[in-house]
Amino acid sequence: MTTYQEYKAKIAELETLAETARKNEKAAAKEQILSLMREFGITIAELGAPGKSKSGKKRAPVPAKYRDDATGQTWTGRGRAPKWLEGKNKDQYLIK
Predict the structure, then answer these.
(1) Measured between alpha carbons, how far is 65 from 60 in angstroms, rounded to an integer?
(2) Residue 9 lies in a domain
């Protein structure tokens, strides 16, 4: 019967083999990507960064649409309505 220690040793050996295989596959993938980039003349700038908009511009802040004249608090009209506007007619607080 196999002991716990023998299983731990096998796991460590397999993790080492898996890490080596991952490094080799990653190197091969990088070479394939670079080869395709050279073949088609693609630059890194053309690929773009993940998670960023294509224009790279930041959004301008949205102007306030509602204002409470008593406190000076404002709300853009987007998202959840603020507490000071709950149960009240929004049209009364509309900025004109």
Answers:
(1) 15
(2) yes
pTM (2 d.p.)? 0.46
Lookup result for tokens 């190197």: 27
Give residue 78's pLDDT band: very low, low, confident or very high (50, 70, 90): very high
DSSP 76: -
Report yes or no: 74 and 61 within 8 Å, Cβ to Cβ.
no
8 and 34 share one domain? yes
- Four-CA torsion 84, 86, 90, 94, nearest 10 degrees: 20
Q: Residue 54 falls within a domain, yes or no? A: no
Q: Which residue range is the domain that position 30 belongs to? A: 4-47
Q: 56: helix, coil or strand? A: coil
Beta strands in the chain (DSSP E): 66-67, 74-75
The secondary structure of residue 94, as a DSSP letter, is B
C-beta of residue 58 within 8 angstroms of C-beta of residue 28: no
